[in-house]
From TrEMBL:
Transmembrane annotation, as ranges: none
Domain SIS: 36-194
PROSITE patterns membership: SIS
Pfam families linked to this entry: SIS_2
InterPro entries found in the cross-reference section: GmhA/DiaA, SIS_dom, SIS_dom_sf, SIS_GmhA/DiaA_subfam
Name the UniProt record assigns to this protein: SIS domain-containing protein
Length: 197
């Protein structure tokens, strides 16, 4: 096996995936940034969840919101439910695994808040029930998805924003989603704090 060739191939595939995302995603990313800004400017918060490895990306997004990316600035209101181990275990034990996010959203979510979802598998019941609970609480959804997340796509309403990376392969999808997260944070900072290049 030629490791140098394998390394080159991985980079080339990543560059190609990023180019494809650049051609299709900017309008959805811009809309999501405006929706999130509107929520924060009105006193709302962002509740973040994810399934599988998407839970790490949702946690990363909430961390960047609470802390910062490159520019020094005040923290922004975000909660990550995917990392709340004690709550997840208690709800799973006392109620059902399917309720791990929806029960927390019902308790914490308010009208005008945003549910930020990273879902790359569509048949995950906790994600589906979370979206339903968010809609019941009059929250909007910003969802980072892939073609496999068909059930998530079907649940989003016209008031929601889906940023779908139309690629196959976990690595390529996550790389593009990571770029989307960085861009969203940058656009939020520009709107909230007037930052420019």
């Amino acid at each position: 096996m030629d490791f140098q060739e394998a390394i080159y191939t991985q980079f080339a595939q990543s560059f190609e995936a990023q180019q494809q995302a650049l051609e299709s995603l900017p309008p959805y990313i811009e809309h999501a940034a405006k929706v999130i800004f509107s929520s924060i400017a009105s006193g709302g918060k962002i509740i973040c969840i994810g399934n599988s490895t998407g839970s790490h990306l949702s946690q990363y997004f909430s961390t960047l919101m609470l802390d910062r990316m490159d520019r020094e600035r005040p923290g922004l209101p975000a909660i990550n439910l995917s990392g709340e181990g004690a709550a997840l275990l208690a709800i799973t034990h006392n109620d059902s695994y399917h309720d791990v996010f929806s029960k927390q959203i019902t308790a914490l979510g308010n009208p005008g808040d945003i549910l930020f979802v990273v879902a790359n598998r569509g048949n995950t019941s906790p994600i589906i029930q979370a979206i339903q609970a968010a809609h019941e609480r009059k929250m909007n959804i910003v969802a980072l998805t892939s073609p496999e997340a068909k059930n998530v796509s079907s649940l989003t309403s016209q008031d929601d924003t889906e940023i779908k990376v139309n690629l196959l392969g976990t690595a390529r999808v996550h790389e593009c989603q990571l770029s989307v997260i960085h861009i969203l944070i940058d656009l939020l900072e520009r709107q909230l704090f007037g930052y420019e290049d």
